[in-house]
Each structure stands twice: as C-alpha cells, then as structure tokens.
Amino acid sequence: MIYPTPLAILLAALGIPAALMTAAISPAFWWVGMAWAGAVLIGGLVDALMLRDWPKLELAAPALVPVGEPFPVSVTATFASARKRTLEWALGAGPRIELAGDARRTSDTGTAAWTARASRRGPAIIGPAWARWRGPLGLAWRQRRLEHKERVGVTQNIAPLYRPPVQAMMRDAAVGMVARMHQGEGTEFQSLVEFRTGMDRRSIDWKRSASRRELVAREYRTERNNQIVFALDCGRAMVEPIKGVTRLDRAVTSALTGAYVALKSGDRAAIYAFASQPKTVSAFASGTGQFPRLQSAASEIDYSHEETNYTLGLTQLGARLQRRSLIVVFTEFADPTSAELLVEAAQRLLERHLVIFILQRDEELEAATEIRPETPEDVSRAVTAAALLKERQLVITRLRHLGSHIVESRHGETPERLIDAYFAIKRRGLL
Question: Which residues are in the DUF58 domain (predicted)?
C-alpha cells in the first residue's frame, strides 16, 4: 500500500491559500495554484516510484511461554537493497497477550522488538504486524502488512522452582541441619541410642534406661511417603487479576512449586481443582520423574465464573482420601456467605486431615485503607475496604481456631511461604 505522508498533505494544503491569494491579487496567474498542486502530486508519484523494494517480513515469538513472565517478540524486514531506511512498526496481539509500552516502534536496523507477557494460560495469538517507510523525498509512505499470526502456548509458570530461596530450601531438605532433624524430630520410631547432651529429655526411654543402667533415648525419623493434595479453587473469586495475572494462575504456580518440593522430599503429591463441582483430579505422583504428570493435570485447570461450592468440592475430596493427608487449599472468599460455607467444609475436613489454607493478600483493599481521603467517595471507599478486611481476618481467625494452618502472603512470596510451612509441618511430625 502506498499513500501520502503528512508532509505531502501539508504541502498540498498550503497551495490552496496561495492559489486564492494569487487569484485575488493577479487573476491572470490563477494557474499558479494548479501548478503547485501538480508539482506536489508529481513529487509524490516520483517518491512512490522510488519505493520499489518490497521486503519480506518475519514474525518471531516463542512457541511456549510461562504465564505472567515477560518474553521477547520481534519482527524483521529483509530488503533486496542495502539502502538504510527508517521503519515504523506496529504489532497486534490477542486478548491473552499484553505488550509492554506502546505497540508502535521506530527503528533503523530493520528489526523491531517488543516485550510481551501472557496474562492467562491457554492458546494465544501474536499478530498481525505492520511495517512502513518513507520515500527519499519524504512525500510517500509504503506499508506492508504481515497477515501471519504466531500461535503461542501459555503454560504454567514454574520459574519459582529456580529462585535462590527455593533452591536453598530444597538443599536444606537433603543436607545439613534440617536433614539431621529428619532423624531426630520425626514421628516414626527408628532405634534406641545413648542419651547425649542437647537431646530432648522427653525422648528418654526410662524402662530401657533402668534395665541397662544408663540413659538411652528413642530416636525417630520423619515419616516419608505422605500424601499431599494441592486443592485449587478455580471459581469466580480466583479469576480476579493481581498485577496482570489471575489469582488462579498464581495459585497453580505455587501448587506446582510445592508439589515438586514434596516429590523431592519423598512424599506423594496430587492436583485437585474444583468450582461449582470437582473439575480436575489427578492420581498421586511419586518421585520427581512423575512431575510432568502433575504439570499436565494443572494445564487442564480452566477458568470459571461460577460460585465456588466448598461443601461439594471439599467433601468429595475428603471422601476420595483413604488415609490421613496434608491438604493445601488455594482459595479466596469474596463475601461472608461463601466464607461461612468454607468454614463449615473445613471443619469436616479437619476431623481426619491436616489442612493448610493459602490466601493471597488483597493489596487493592489494603491500599484503599491507606490512601489519604480527599473526597466523600474516598472516605466511603476506605470504610468499605476496612470492613471487608475485618471480615476476612475474622474468617482467618475461625479457621485457625479449628486447627487449620493459614499462609497469607503477597502474591510474589507465596511459593516460598508454602514451602516453609510444609517443612515446618514435616519437622514437627504433624502428619
């Protein structure tokens, strides 16, 4: 496509008042205005004829990207001639893709680069792309559109597994002080050893000590092969975005991180998702070699705009488990009614199992209470936010009184906090 530049339009427009003034002052020279317009038109045609190069456009994007993580996208134009040009670019993207900054770019290198981020899991599209450049005279644009659209698969984000804090926690689980605690502070009896200074006096076996006439203590080891279930609420409240990524996607990332650590620690892990009814149920995986099975199950978790049925979802989960398990529930309650149903369902679940509730702090509500009010609307917003936060804390307190463990953190700290809580439970032998 070839069309005039703003400079050509401006020059043509300037010819109109010049022609009117010439005709008013000297009617015999009325043709000057027509000559001016013709000169601009001829100049534009000459400039367009000099734009003979038709470049080859190529769009490059990764085939798979993790949700919430930035990734590069580039468009390259290859010309037959080596003449230097300044190109202006534009790039389109589907609803799951967000481009950082402006979608338009200007470059002298023949390549334009963007940083993009996927806001939701699933198939996404990047494209089409446009490139245009001026002629040597600056009077004509030539534009080409690349109709090709690159398909990008948006997968779960397991980047937290490679963060230094998580790697340090996993190393501590295998070596060093924490590994020594596996032998000294577990729940499964291992052997009798001579009592040494620094050991817990409650571990002394008084009957054996009396028969041997020396202090001996029971040595325990942490029981392995425990069942860990990561239950994800994928109802309406979990679709709410936090910093551009939904609560559900952040929960999936934390669940997969916790599952990998559990598998590496010798336990068994499973994924369970529910909304108005159970949606995804995976079999228990053992060993890190079966971690891809959990990833595959997590990829099937879809977004839902239905209200969460805690009674049905958690009751069916409890019925599926034949032995005492650690259940990690990722959820968010938006109103007192759903919170009450959550408490009732948790009470029945806690009769047999150990439950950890993972809650992501509502930073928008917290920010609303901290902003200095300047209008009546600000005051009303702050009062409402404070009331909602108070109700939230009441529910958290009730869940703690029932015997459940609560991990409430900012969205970026959830994987580390979950792993810390998991190791604390293992060290205390609560399972």
Answer: 194-371
